Amino acid sequence: MTKxxxxxxxxxxxxxxxxxxxxxxxxxxxxxxxxxxCGIFQKFLSPYELQNLRTLVHRIQSSDASLGALRxxxxxxxxxxxxxxxxxxxxxxxxxxxxxLQNMLESARISLQAGLSGTDAAVAxxxxxxxxxxxxxxxxxxxxxxxxxxYFKRPQVVKVISTNLRAACASVSISCEIVVNVDNPHEGAxxxxxxxxxxxxxxxxxHEARGYNRAARLARGxxxxxxxxxx
Length: 231
What we know:
By secondary structure, the protein is α/β, with parallel strands linked by helices.
């Protein structure tokens, strides 16, 4: 009887201690962020506004990614008739979305509610907090398919591969890229001339397994396709 009473007392104290240290509100879930300051958006924005905020943030980041890709000549090839947007068009689109983001935060008085120094600080906080979960549809510059190729000493096929695969992707209106591990760098210039649709990676005789692994790490597509030369 005494032991039973002792066990009950120990259990009661254990439950009491656990209850005292547990948080009153769970901080996990698809729309939560580990940073406590991010809760300001859940508190003062409706679910609809929160989704719009997240989409705006990701579209701004997508515009930055597209501008970078355009400047590097890596804009994904979509079709023969679809024009690549100019840098001015991308910049204008980014500025428009940034303005919408600022207006949304000002309307909700986020900077005041969070005790921030102003709208710029609220924008920075929104970008930080809304980046924890990817919105893939916002990143239109991301190719759908990445074709992975390990290349070694077949200079006669470089232009053929690039031209034919580009045409194949265009014929079905799928955005593609070829990520090529060039395993003999002295022929790298041939692949560099195809840069844009082609993403050349220069190595020193890594061989196939490691070559494909390296290409896969740099691929941006949703689907990865392994392609072999001369097989």
